[in-house]
Design brief:
about 140 residues, mainly alpha
């Protein structure tokens, strides 16, 4: 299925040991299968294929496939990540919560998904953006 798929560097993704371990994990395979069944029950198979294609492309093109996979998992509420949080993923990969959140939002937006239980709503994000913006000095 992934033969011939390469990164921007030309390296085959099949040579990426971290990604291989991730994809070989039975829990992840089961979670992907279950989520695909859920999506197929609520939408067309074209939508499911499109979402899976977008997820795989993001993982393949990422400099850190394991981090990208975890962020996508949080964005779609994968069952194997239910005990995880944005904070725990950020700590595990040595990035900020904002970096994890940004990846989750980017994927959910690209795949036209509603916010997961791990994400704030668009209205909340907009409010935070406005209240945390630097204030201009009025002369």
């Amino acid at each position: 299925m992934l033969e011939g798929v390469t990164r921007d560097t030309g390296q085959s993704i099949l040579e990426d040991e971290e990604l291989q371990e991730l994809l070989e994990d039975p829990a992840i395979q089961e979670a992907i299968y279950e989520r695909a069944k859920e999506l197929a029950a609520t939408g067309s198979t074209r939508t499911v294929r499109s979402g899976l294609r977008k997820a795989l492309c993001r993982i393949i093109d990422s400099k850190n496939p394991a981090l990208e996979s975890a962020c996508i998992g949080l964005a779609i509420d994968f069952p194997f990540l239910k005990e995880e949080s944005v904070t725990s993923i950020a700590q595990r990969f040595g990035v900020t919560k904002a970096a994890v959140s940004k990846r989750m939002i980017a994927f959910a937006t690209e795949a036209d998904l509603p916010p997961s239980s791990h994400m704030k709503s668009a209205a909340s994000r907009d409010t935070y953006r406005k209240t945390n913006a630097r204030r201009r000095k009025i002369a």
